[in-house]
Amino acid sequence: MEMEFVSIPAGEFLMGSHKSDKEKDKDETPQHKVIIKNGFSMQKTEVTQGQWVEIMGSNPSYFKECGKDCPVESVSWNDVQEFIRRLNKKTGKNYRLPTEAEWEYAARAGSMTRYPCGDDAGCLDAIAWYGSNSGGTPQPVGKKLPNAWGLYDMIGNVWEWCQDWYGDKYYKKSSSTDPKGPETGSYRVIRGGGWHYSAWLCRSSNRNSNDPSYVGNFLGFRLVLPQVISEGK
């Protein structure tokens, strides 16, 4: 099974929304510095239907007709954990979901604007499938432009599960170094916006969440490895 990854460098960034963003939600503030102490590797695209079938043996996706190169969807956070368990057993590696901080750091790819491509939602058409251009369905991965770090579809196509529990006031008390979310919770973080959502939900700082058992045809994921690996491996 071919799963391509890119190396994400260690560094720091401002996580959350600037106070001047009129579309921000309260849970996106305060904007705060986050340090990603160690580099890691992130999957270039969302996990595809073909990749899921190879590990799990069946395709849960609502949009099966979209094809094997489309993102797998209709998978819960719990389903994803089973996929990761089987994948790690097969490969001997330690794949996992990104933390919320890792996800936003990678999505921004050094940008400080509302979207990875700029402050104007008009730039989204070049990088993302969302409500205005998707045609009402997910699309094959990797067809839009990547961000500055070579990651495709971080914004739009399907929302992506993150590892963290969600906390609406978490930013006010989170660690500045490699934050990993609240210790407990009822919902898991999802990020990135999706194929039938508005542009403002595709902002890099936008936060959302869902029950870890929830299944939706707008919701998928991508993987990370905590160590840096060579591109394409």
Q: What layout of secondary structure does this protein have?
A:
Layout (H helix, E strand, L loop, with lengths): L4 E4 L2 E5 L16 E5 L3 E4 L5 H8 L20 H15 L8 H9 L15 H4 L31 E7 L22 E4 L16 E3 L8 E2 L3 E2 L8
Parallel strand pairs: 5-8
Antiparallel strand pairs: 1-4, 2-3, 4-9, 5-6, 6-7
Describe the structure.
InterPro entries: CTDL_fold (IPR016187), Sulfatase_Mod_Factor_Kinase (IPR051043), SUMF_dom (IPR005532), SUMF_sf (IPR042095). One of its GO terms (molecular function) is formylglycine-generating oxidase activity. This is Sulfatase-modifying factor enzyme-like domain-containing protein. The protein has 233 residues and is of the alpha+beta class. The protein is built from four helices and nine strands. It has one domain: Alpha-Beta Complex (paralog of FGE (formylglycine-generating enzyme)), CATH 3.90.1580. The model has no long low-confidence stretch (mean pLDDT 96).
- Top-tier CATH class: Alpha Beta
Strand order of the largest sheet: 7-6-5-8
Task: State Rg.
Answer: 16 Å
Structural class: alpha+beta
Using DSSP, what is the number of strands? 9
Shape: globular
How many helical elements?
4
Stated plainly, the CATH topology is called: paralog of FGE (formylglycine-generating enzyme)
How many distinct domains?
A: 1
Q: List low-pLDDT spans.
A: none
pLDDT averaged residue by residue: 96
SSE string: EEEEHHHHEEEEE
Span between termini: 10 Å
Question: Percent helix among the residues?
Answer: 10-25%
For the biggest sheet, the summary is:
4 strands, mixed
Task: Name the CATH superfamily assignment.
Answer: paralog of FGE (formylglycine-generating enzyme)
* CATH architectural grouping: Alpha-Beta Complex
Percent strand: 15-25%
Protein name: Sulfatase-modifying factor enzyme-like domain-containing protein
GO molecular function: formylglycine-generating oxidase activity
Organism: Candidatus Brocadia fulgida
Domain Sulfatase-modifying factor enzyme-like: 3-224
